[in-house]
Structure formats: C-alpha cells, structure tokens
Amino acid sequence: MTKRVNAELFIENVVGTLSAGLVATGIVVGGWFLRQQPPHFGVQTVNVKLPNIQSVKASSVSAAELEPYYQQYRAKIAAEKEKARQAELARQKAIADAKAAAEKKRLEAEAAKRQAEQAAKEAAEKAAKKAEQQRQAALAERRRAVQQAAQQAIEARQAQAAQRLAQKQATEKKATEKKRRQALAKKQAAEKKAAEKKRRQALAKKQAAEKKAAEKKRRQALAKKQAAEKKAAEKKRRQALAKKKAAAKKAAEKKRREALTRKKAAAKKAAEKKRRQALAKKRAAARKAAEQKRLQAELAASLAAEIKAREAKAAARRRAEAEARQKNQAFIQTAKKIGNKVRRNWQVPPKLPRHLRVKLAIRLSSRGKVLGNPRVVKSSGYKAFDLSAIEAVKRASPLPMPKKRAWAKAFAKENLILSFP
Predict the structure, then answer these.
(1) Of the candidates 47, 84, 6, which has an alpha carbon nearest to the alpha carbon of residue 420?
(2) Domain residue spans in the chain?
(3) CATH of domain 345-420
(4) pLDDT tens digits, 106-150
C-alpha cells in the first residue's frame, strides 16, 4: 500500500512539474493583448473598442529542454528508493531486536522454570527425607512400646508363677502337716498319698516345663513375627522409594524428550520461517522490479501524453490567434465601412462654427440595425450639430457588419463610439 501511494504521489509530482514548465514556457513566449484603434475618415472618425487578443508564438520543446526535468525525476526516484531502503533496514533491525529480546526472555523463562523445578525437587526430597525420619521415629517408638509391653507381660507371668509357687508351697506344707498328722494313723495311706504327691509334683513339674517351653516358643514366634513385620515394612519402604525414584527418573526422561521435541520443532519452525522470509523477500524484489518498470513505462507514457497535449494546445492556440487576427481585421474593415456609410448620409448644418466635434455611442443588432437612438457621449455644444450626427446614423441604418454571424454578434455586443468629424 505504501509503495502504491508513493508511486501515485510521484506521478502527481511529475505531472505538476510538467504543467508548471509548460505554463512558464507559455508565459515566456506569450505576447501582450493588442488594442486596435480605428482609422480617421476625413471629417469623420469611428472609434471602435475591440477585444484584447493575445498573440503567442508557437514553439516546440526539444529534448535538451526536457533533460533537466528528467534529471530531477531520476533524482527524486533515487531519493524515494533510498528512503524506502532505509525504512526497510530500520524495519529489519526492529524485527531482529524484537526476536533477540523474545529469545532472551524465553531463555530467562526457561532458566527460571528449571530453577523452580530444582527447588521443587529439593523441597520434595527434603519432605520425603523428613517423612522417612518421622516414620523411623514412629517405628522406633512402636518398637519400644512393643518391647515394654512384652517386658510387662513377662513380669506379670513371673509374678503369677511366683504366686502359684507360694500357693503350692503353702498347700504342700499344709498337706505335709496333714500327712504328718495322719502318718501315725495311716502309714499306708500316707505312703500312697506321698507317692501320689510325688506323681503330682512330677506332673506339675512337667506341666511347668511344658508351659515354659510354650512361653519360650511364643516369645520366639512373637520376635520372629516382629522381625518379619519389620523386614516387610522395610521392604515396602524400599519398594516405594525405588518406585518413586523410577517415577521421577521417568518424568525427567519424559521432560527431556519433550524439551528435545520442542527444540527440534522450534528449529524446524525457524528454518521454515527463514525459508518463507527468503521467498517473500525474493517475491518482494520481483514485485519491486516490476513496479519500477511499470512506473518507468507510465512516466514515459505520461511524458509523451503531456508533450502531445501541449503540442495540441499550442496548435489550438495558434488557430485561436489566427482566428483572432482575422476577427480583428474584420472588425477594422467593418469600422471603415460604417464610417464611410455614415459620412455619406451626414448633412452638416450651415452657419455653424468650424472644428466642432461630437461623440455618439450606438447599439447595433447582429444584422447592423441601429437599436434605439444614439446617445451623445461628448456634445459639441451645438444641438443642431449633435442632431445632424444622430440623424446621419439613423439614415445609414442598417450599418455594415462582419460576414460571419458569430463575429457579427460579437461586434454588436461592443460599445461602438462614433466621432464627428
């Protein structure tokens, strides 16, 4: 759009400059308007006011005279080209600056993003470490509670065993006392009872040993179960940690691949953009060359048309000047004829002083008929002399007129002044 506007302004400047040059040439070779005075006819003088006629000498403009204008146009075209080139350089520089600023901003954003991701990663690791520490502390507390509960259970069982033993001893003492009291009476029963007691003691001892073995086995099973639970919890924690590390590694790999994909896409996009810009630049250069060629052709055509129009105008001016000269000559001849006819119809009154003079203004139709009464412009001082002149004009009507009807109409529109004599 800008190039088109510049081209239109350039063409307007060319046409305006040519028009100014033509006007200057017309002024230099133009002449002044000529005013023709009617001749004197003896005692009569006919003054006819004729139109101004401009006489212009026709001349053709040579190539040498047009060369300064061509140089001026070429200089103006070169200035417009330089201005457009500077504007294009400024535009390209602005685009490059904007691209550099955008790239810098993008790099800063990526660096800030990486820093934020690193900070988030460190915060996550710190939180995981803290959670692990808390979990270990909770596990240790749980272990202490379990151990304390086990110790309390052992102590309770020991207290119960001691109580049972004391009760047993008291029972045994009572039984022994009973046996001793009954030994005297019933030796056999005592011996039988002693044997039964021994058997019972052996059985109680055996049961105590079995109970102790069962308790030991239970404790071992509990310890083994706690160890298995601890091992399973540790294994689960390690699996969760490994899974978390694998997920983080997978996310990092995915992010790296996405960044690589974006980088490749950006490089491809930049290459495509560069190719399009080169193609657009090439097309713009071709359009510019075509536009310049078209402007040169239009300029040449405009100059040729302007020269042709100027020559046609000069020819028309020459024809108008020739017609004006013919018209002027016809007006002069008509004025002579009118003077001769009025002189033939004029009868000067006798006994009047000599050297009297009167001027009459008359109006004519296009056919030479006197319209109304002639008007006295300058009186002679004698009414009879003035009336004789008026009557001479009336008697001479219709007066001679130019042969061409248009010239006759133009002559009739003029103020015709007749001088007597």
Answers:
(1) 47
(2) 122-238, 345-420
(3) 3.30.1150.10
(4) 999 999 999 999 999 999 899 989 989 999 998 989 999 889 988
